[in-house]
Fold:
Amino acid sequence: MRAILFLFLLSLLVAAGTEDIVKNYTEPDDDYSIKKIKIGNNDYALITVNGNETFLINESSSILLRDGKDIESVFISTDVTLTETYKLRVQILREFMESYNNSRQPQENQCKIFTGTNNIACVDKDSCIKACYSSPICGKVLGSVEFALTIRDWYVAVLMLDGNVSDFFQDLRPVMGTKSLDNELQKLNDIRELSFELTDSDLVSVYAICPGARYNFTALDSAINLVNLLKGNEVVIAASERASNVEKRTSDLINFTETKKTMFEVQSDRRDGAVSELNDKYTRLAVNVYDPELERKYNAVIALNDEIIGLASENLYKQAFAKDEEFSFNVAIVNTSIDAGQKEYAKVLILKTNVSTKLAKVKVNQVPGYNITEIREEFRAINQSLSKKVGKSDLLEIQEKLSNMSLSLDQIIIVTAGQQETPAGSLCTPALIILLLLGYVAYVRK
Structure:
C-alpha cells in the first residue's frame, strides 16, 4: 500500500515538474498539449505548442532536452523493432573500433619507449630532445633538430588519435540519429587520416627507430561503412529531421524566454521617445488646426502603446512584440499627417503676411474694378478666424482666398501707383499756364 502511495505521489511530482517547465517557456495564450513517451525506465513528455512539436522533457529527471543528439535518440527509440536491430549494429560498430584500437599496440608503446616519450611529453624542440636523451636508443640516434621535430610530429599525432578514439567511444550510444552519426563519422575519418600519417612517419621509414605500424584498416573501414549504413535508414532520417526541428524550436524558445523582458524594455524606451516626440508635434499643430481624423489616429497610437504595456504585464510578450510593429507603422502615418498639416498651415501664414504687407501699401479705398474696403473686411475676417483653431478642411479655402487677394492687390498697387504720378504732372501744367497768363496781363497793364 505504501509503495503504491509513493508511486502516486512521485507521479504527481513529475507532472508538476513538467507543468512548471511548460509554463516557464510558454505564454497564457499558447495552445499546448503533452504527449507521454516511455523508453525503458525513462519517461519523457513531448510538448506541442501551437501545433508544432517544440520541446522534449525527460520527466525522470525534470530536464528539458536541448541537445539534438539526445532528442533524436528518444524519437528513434520509439520504434521498438528498429531499436533492437539498431542496438545490435551499434554493438558491432563498437567491436570494429575495439579491434582497430587494439591493433595500435604494441607498436605505439614500443615507439614511445624508443623515443623517450613514455616518460617525457614531447611538444616542442627542447622537450623532444630531452625525451630523446632519456632513452638509450634515441640518444644514440639524435643528431639534428629535424629528428627531434619528427618525434614531436609523431607524438602529437598519437595524442590526437588517442583523443579521437576516446571521444568516439564516449559518444557511442545504443541509439543514435543523423546528428550523432555525423559526429561519429567525422571522428572516424580523422582517425583514418591520422593512422595513415603515423604509418608513413619518418621515424619508421627514414630513421628506423620505431617498428612499422600495423593498424587494422579493415576494421576501421568496416566501422565507417556501418555508420553510413545506419545513417541511411529511413526511420533514422525522419526521426533526425524531426529532432532537428524540435532542437531549433527549443533553442528559439529558450532564447526568447530569456531575452523577452530585455527586448521589451528596449522597445519600451523607443516607444516612449516616439510618443513624446509625437505628442509635442501634435500639440503644436492642434493649437492652431482642428483635424478630427488626425486626432482619432493620434489617440489610437496612444491607446495602442498602453495596450502593449498591458500585454507585457500579463506575460503576453509575443502579442506585445507583434503590436509593437503595428505601433511603429501607425506612428509613421500620424507623423506624416502632422507634417502635412503643418505645411498647409505654414502656407496660410505666409500668404497672410504677404497680403498684410500689400494692404499696407494701398492708401485708397476705391479703385475702378476693385472694392478695397471689401478686401480689407474679408482679410479682417480671415485674421479673426485664424486667431482660434481652424479646421483642416478650411485651410485650402483660406489659402485660395488669400491667394486671390494677393493677386488683386498686385493689380491695385500697379493702378494706384500710376494715379499718384499722373496728378502731379497734370496739376502742375495748368498752374504754370495760369501764372504765366496773370503775369503777362499785369505786364500789359503797366
